[in-house]
Structures are given as structure tokens and as C-alpha cells.
Amino acid sequence: MTRILDGIKKNDFVVVGRVGMDLFPDPPGMDIENATTLTVDMGGSSANIAAGVVKLGGQAALVTCVSDDAVGRACRRLLGKYGVDDAYVRTVGGEARNSLALYESRVADHQSVIYRNGAADFEMTVADVEAVDYKRFGALVTAGTVFAAEPSRSAAFRAFELARAAGLPIIFDVDYRPYSWPSPEVAADVLSRAGAFSDVIVGNDEEFGFMAGGIEKGLQKARDLAATSASIVIYKMGAEGAVTFDGTSELRTGIYPVAAMKPTGAGDSFMAGLLTGIADGLDLRQAVLRGSACAAIVVGKPGCAPAMPLPADLDAFLNSHPGPTAP
Fold first, then answer.
1. Which of 77, 158, 283, 327 has its CA 20 to 30 A from that of 239?
2. 39 — phi, psi (to 5°)?
3. DSSP character for 15?
4. Quick check: 313 and 272 in contact, CB under 8 A?
5. Could you give the percent of the chain with pLDDT greater than 70?
6. pLDDT tens digit sequence for 217-228
7. Distance between CA 106 and CA 167 in Å, rounded?
8. Nearest to 85 by CA among 64, 61, 65
9. Within the chain, where are the H helices?
10. DSSP letter string over 148-160?
11. Quick check: pTM over 0.85?
């Protein structure tokens, strides 16, 4: 456990996975069918986590591929806007295209439309991850979508091997998106292998249940991973809070209730808040609650990366909110 926490406390992360473009109707509440104005900003789970970390005072470099077109160039520009290092981002030609996410800033009848066919980030190769200087970072972070297709899948597993050889803890957000995978069977096998390789695993009840073969088995799956391979496993249950396993204890925490504007971005912001909370010296319970507060902030604002809080935003939220629910 000490190695894991010491790595995270360096507050300097190599993040493996996609950057994409988000489009959302303006004003908030507008549906996609009737929208006449769309806001453009950065998306992609790994890029969002990296942006959230930087906004909260950490450092992050992204490892991925972007398309050789205006959208790919926009994604690079947006990484720069959020202070994410793009030294390990490679531009690919051909028919590969950056992922696009079109979603609404509303909860009732919410619609999200994701374009992932021929995604540029799936073109990441073993050579891309072997070019990374892992020793300059404190920890590796990735999300499950990086494993959904080749050559990205093999590259991500190779990044795990190289990070472990360099002494870095591996932090894995399960982030199961069915539309990215060839079949549920492949996804369950690959995500389980990735989980077995990881030191810190974060997922929701449905994701752990998926890996276990049934949602009713998810909690035990999380418990088993903490007992056999991972040092920290966080099992999120939406409005019911979370259960955190650290190998010896089970810690239950609540959430910060808010009037949500949208359902997207919460998981990415949770991860950023959790990691920077540990880096800032919080104990595990307080770091999980910090992640929950960051998630609550993001669902209350339009966009994902732009909604990630700065330290002043987080302080203002915590000072004005009555506090988390009972676990």
C-alpha cells in the first residue's frame, strides 16, 4: 500500500486513453433535435481525468492517437487549454477519426450520441507506449475503453507492464461502454484481466457486476479483487454512495446530493478528485469524499472538462454544501 500511495502523492500522472470532442446544445436543457447552437469542448474519459487532475493542481500527460484533420488538431489545442501534456500524443492518417460525443445538458429524457467507428485512439500501438519515460511519473491511469479494440488493447497491456517495471502503481477505471466492444464476452474477459493487473480499481456496481457475470455478484467481485490483487477497490453505487476496500477493511461513504443538470462526466471527475485528494495528503475516506464532491460539481454544470472544478470551486462547494449523506 505504501508504494501505491507514494506514487499517487507525486501528483504527476501518465494517462493512457482517448481524447475526443464533445458537442452539447446551448442553452442547457435544449434537446439535440431542436438545437441551433452547439458548444465545442474536450471530451474522452482519459482526457477528462487528466484535465481534472491538472485543474486541481496536479500534472498529467496523455498517451493516445488523434486524427490528422481539423478535429484532431482541435483536440490537441484543447489539451493545451487544460494544461495536459501532449508529448505522447501521435497523429494518425488514413480513415481514422477522433471520437465525437453529442449529449444534452438535461437529466429528463437525456440523450447521448457517441461516434466511435474507426476511432483514432484505437490506433495506439505498442511503440507509442514504449516511447513513454515512465520513471518521470508517479502513477499510470487508464479507463476501460482503451482495451476495447486492437492495437490499442495490446498497447495498453504493454503500458501496464512497463509502468509496473518502473515501479508505478496502476490505476484503472473500469468504464465499460458496450458500444466500443465486439461482444460482452470479450469485454468481460479483457476487463477482468486488466483489473487483475491493477493496484487501484474504480467502477460502479453495474461494471463490477458485468465482470462477475451478474450485478448481484459485483460487490463480491470487488471484495475479491481487493483480497487477491488490488490494494484499493472502490465500488460505486450511485445515489447509495460507495464502498472502498483496502485489503483489510470496508469503508462506506455517502454522496453530496445536488440538482443535476446532466448525468455525464461524474466518473471522470470522481477519479481526478480521488487522486489529487490522496496527493494532497487526505486519508482514503476523505479522498473518496473529495471525489464524490467533484462528481457532484460536474453534473451540475454543462460539459465535462470545462465543468471540472478548480480548487476554489471545490472549496466553495464544500463550504456551502450541508455535507455528504450517511453511507
1. 283
2. -90, 140
3. E
4. no
5. 100
6. 999 999 999 999
7. 43
8. 61
9. 2-9, 45-55, 70-81, 126-130, 152-165, 184-196, 205-212, 218-228, 266-279, 284-299, 311-320
10. SSTTHHHHHHHHH
11. yes
